[in-house]
Amino acid sequence: MTSLAVIMGYVEYLIPFRFPVPGIKPGLANVVIVPVLYWFGLPAALAVSLIRVFISSLLFGNIVSLVYSLLGALASLAAMELLRRAGVFSAIGVSAAGGAMHGLGQITAAAALTGSTAVIRYLPALLIAGDITGCLIGLTSLIILDRIDPKKASACQ
After folding, report:
1. Percent of the chain with pLDDT strictly greater than 90
2. Which domain holds residue 84?
3. Predicted confidence band at 25 (pLDDT cuts at 50, 70, 90)?
4. Residue 151 — pLDDT band, cuts 50, 70, 90?
5. How far is CA 126 from CA 8, 20, 36, 70, 72, in A?
């Protein structure tokens, strides 16, 4: 599952379009992370996510991108796990919250690294983009969850 998440990150890296606001990305690796969270729980999703962040940063980024991705991933996973456990939202809502929280994690990292709160002006765009991409990733994850038997998926763990 970690390999799939890294591959999805690579596919995202290859997308030539750059958004006008720094930090906006589709979050394609979450097509793997969300099902892992549902099938295997938080420890497995955390492991897959952290390993993916480190490998992707080594291959496609730098230490600064590692900090942004790490804080974004941790914030995202925390929100997704809380909502998943609450059982009120489908994978779409859980993923949308994760997308929004990823942006909040990135802003926190940017404020800490730059020592400036001026980066907060990017937060509305990151929250909106995170919700939109999170819904799309959540819809894809929901389809995966509905079509793949988790017992068979456990062989991929």
Report:
1. 74
2. 2-149
3. confident
4. low
5. 20, 11, 24, 16, 11
Q: What is the CATH number of the domain that holds 95?
A: 1.10.1760.20
Pair of tokens at residue 156? 């991929």
pTM: 0.89
- Structural domain count, the chain: 1
Q: Would you say residue 50 lies in a domain?
A: yes
Give the per-residue pLDDT at 24. 79
